[in-house]
Amino acid sequence: MKRVALALLALMLLVGLTAVGQAKLTIWADDVGTPVFREIAAGFTAATGVEIEVVEIAFSDLRGQFITAAPTGEGPDILVGNHDWTGELVVNGLLEPIDLGLRAAEFNAVGLEGFSYGGNLYGIPYGVENVALLYNKDLVPTPPTTWDELLTIAADLTDVESGVYGYIVQNPDPFHWFPMLSAGGGYIFGTDENGGLDPCDVGLATPGAVNGAIIFDQMIEDGLLANGADWDTMTGVMFSGNGGMVISGPWLIGGLRDAGINYGVAPIPSIPNGDGTYGTPKPFASVRGVMLSSFSENKTIAKDFLFNYIATEQVALELFAKDPRPPAYLSAFDKVSDDPDIAAFGQQGQNAIPMPNIAEMSSVWGAWSDAQALIGNQEADPIQALQAAVQQILDAIGCEE
Amino acid sequence: MKRPRLSLALVKVVLLCLLDAAAIWGIILLGVRGSYALLASLGIGTLLINFVSFSKRAYPLRYLLPGLVFLFGMVVYPIVYTVYISTTNTQTGHILTRAQVMEQLGQRTYAPTEARTFSSAVYQDEDELLRVLLTGANGELLLSEGDRFKDIEPDNPLLVRDDQGTIVAIGDFQLLNLGGLYSVLGQLETELFAYGDTFLKVLSVREFTEVLPLYAFDETTGVLTNLETGVTYEHVEGTFTAPDGSVIEPGFRVSVGARNYTDILTDEGIRSDFLRVFTWTVLWSLFSVLFSFAIGLGVAMLLNDPYIHGRMFYRSIMIIPYAIPAFISALVWLGLFNTDAGAINRILIDLFGSAAKVPWLQHPIWAKVMLIFVNTWMTFPYMMIISLGALQSIPSGIYEAARIDGASGLQRFSRITMPLLLISVAPLLIGSFAFTFNNFTVVFLMTGGRPPVLDAATPAGATDILISWTYRIAFQGVRGNQLALASAIAVIIFVIIATISAINFRFTKALEDVHRGV
Amino acid sequence: MCIAVYRRHGLAGLIVRHALIWLVIVFALFPVVWIVSASFNPTNSLQTQQLIPRNPTLQHYRTLFTDPNVPFLRWLLNTLKISGITAVGTVILCALGAYAFSRFRFTGRRTGLLGLLIVQMFPQMLAMVAIYLLLLAISEYIPSFGLNTHPGLILVYLGGAMGFNTWFMKGYFDTIPRSLEESAMVDGATPFRAFIRIIIPLARPILAVVLIIQFITSYGEYILASILLRGTEMYTLSVGLRFFTQEAYSRRWGTFAAAAIIGALMILAIFLPLQRMIISGLTGGAVKE
Questions:
Q1: pTM of the predicted structure, to 2 decimals
Q2: Residues A231, A174: one domain?
């Protein structure tokens, strides 16, 4: 009888304790981020007793599932994702603004800009990456500094019969194509009078952009660039040592190292404007960071986690160790930039501009990619294709003439 | 018909009583919670089950009810939902309900000039009520009472200090430790505590700050006022808009009637691309079904032949294409059809020289050929299986009689096998046609609708079928995620395909009559 | 079919028939041999490899069974469970429904049948959101059948049970003469008894066909599964495989191929015994006049 009473008492105590209500945070991350955040979360749990659950979701599903789940209360407190989701998520009322105050100075400005919308910051960046020129030192001892040099090297090396490509890049792929168009002054959205992006000012058919497109077209016609090369083709060529140069990002380095390629990283060669001057290519910066859901029921705790755990040099270095993107946390970046690759990407990154994060961007990718495909397939000339793309984008967004 | 045994009837009644009791309890529960839709479904469902169990006329329904329940829940309800969404303005910027938006706006605050920040400590008593003590920059103390803060003197006898001077209790309320503090922050952070002429709100784990609510909403006039700038907003189709055109994000979902439908049906761009996309969709479905059925039936007949040894082995191999999930096959074939490095082009070049290199993904015609080829490959095992099954139902005596009458192999096939086969299989062919018509996966994964067509008014590529085209318009236009528009297009596609199928079914009715004659 | 349907073939006939079969086999297996090859190839690319890998390795298969981030066995078990229950459930629901449509005459029979099929043709693009909300509501009251549960997913899949399969089965039932049941009912059996004792055994081929079709269909379904299931341990094989193709920068073709092959072998293992049931219509034919 006594034992039963004791057992009951213990049970009541247990229930009583748990009835207090354990605070809990949920984080959604993709396959790369999940193991890292689990480790970081363990430290937070040890210090505060707050349980953190990290759920792994396929990267391409993260945004869509968050939009579906958050308003129903089934979403996470914290979302790990890309900066170009910001506009759409804010406009849907799904993100909570984050005020870093003076601590903003600890971060890369481009990273912060990527997560800013309407004057507020909605995410803490942890990795900023951009593309640059990666080259196989065995085939290309010195990297080219101008595009003409690149063409010469490519012409020498390329031998399609034996599968050797002097230059290769994923196409159609607007993200990788942008440096060529931006060198001469091409842009996606212009700025309006408030400093925000003006979705009705699309700069994909400016003379500078057309110039870059013409060079691209010429390369395909001359057989110096494989039309329709996708990720698998490109990695196949590069990892087997049959590729001289490629425009790609830090994500390729792991594979290059595993394949034992003697690679180097250099800035993308400047593009001739046709009048003797050269334009500097400005690649897109893609920022990975951590966002806070406006439907979270533990915003204060989440902010505590973000400010005091994520936004620290130590964690920035841990994240870098698992997911080698150049850190957005400035002091961490300094620590790791004795790695020549990071330094080189960082150097190129000084000319990088963040991908536009406004929701209207979703109208751009498809039409832009189609334009590149039409040019590559030789079904349209550059100016036609780009102008048609701009028209389609403006129609889709609903801009009046 | 003999009357069912008494014990069986008793069991039935008992079970039904239990079910009804559970249903009544469930209905009360739902009523209390206010979920009227679920309540209605539960009520109707229970009534139906009762009716069906006792009515003789509804006897067939007993067989149909279980399947129908699932059908209604998982197939019909999404259709109803889709139609509902198509009458709203659900899209990026309008996915929340009005209540959710009002709640969010109500939480928004701004900092008054010279907003003060206070460090905070939280106390809890045995009944789990909370009180917050704030300490200002000059040492002033504020104590919460309900939903407001009042000044309190440092020498107030309620305050119990320890040796270091930290206040560890206030009356019956004990200072919360770290774990306890974290577990109550969620409750505290949503409250606005009044203090003097401003409000105080949680700023961080141990801080409060002065804020003022940003918006005030007048229920009667429906006007939202920004208290910081003075700008007034009224809602226009789910978005709060100011006279100068500026808007507040987010907006909310409202009903817009048939607007989405008229937009689609009158849109120039959509109309010009529709015919091309529709034609290809029909051709693609038709050829896929035709070719896969031809191969499937042919193989089924070959493998039904008892004189072919190793039939089991052959059939098992044939099913493999069907046993590999579609998205995997699509990706693998995509690699094989790659223009430069794919195996197919490499084989063609080996056999016919480098002029045989086919631009599978870049050329509109070849891309279409590739898609039909791949879909045929994926579907023919299904056709083989159903043909095998249907062939079993043809009585063999007929063939014997026909052979005696001197019918040739071809005649036996076309006069006996095909018509009898088609009776069971025709609906499946129509179904397969409809499935392929809506087969998003293959087209999207392999070509994404490309290669693009110059001067298309909408993003409609050469291999876009209606459903992938829909996806691109709806999810890659304006600000993306135009669920309402996509729903409307889905309904329109449904009307089209249902009409085509209904016409085809009339055709199969004729076939059923053939069977009666046999 | 009875022996009388086919005649013994001469040598030429046999060669032609076998050749045709092998032609189709080459067609069917062409990509599959590449997948098998990729599963043994240490480089993780599908394109520049030769058909026979230079340094064949078992590492991808090993990863499947040892990597803690890839609970492959759990995925297989989950899939067997979910697809198996769905398939069996579908056959039961479908058979019941098909019997009613075939044997009983009631108002709305024709329309009902047509309606069943038409309803399946609705583009299910937005079904995801609707079903998500439905399961969310169920989660509130019966959590074990709601979001992120296997029973919940099975419920969703059973929604597609009555559809084309019903019509298919009905067509088959139609060819079974009523005289059999009528004589049973004269002897005192209820329609349900006649159904169980007479129709079902005769309908074995069609039951097996619907079983395997539904099994494969739910095996390959990943769209709904990836929305309704969270957490790697809960996944089915398709969702897990999809992960491999969605990984940010490294498509692990080798592991992916190995997993696909094992999955296909699992289906083969199920199909083999079912084959016997499908062609058992041989004996069924003896009953028909």
A1: 0.86
A2: yes
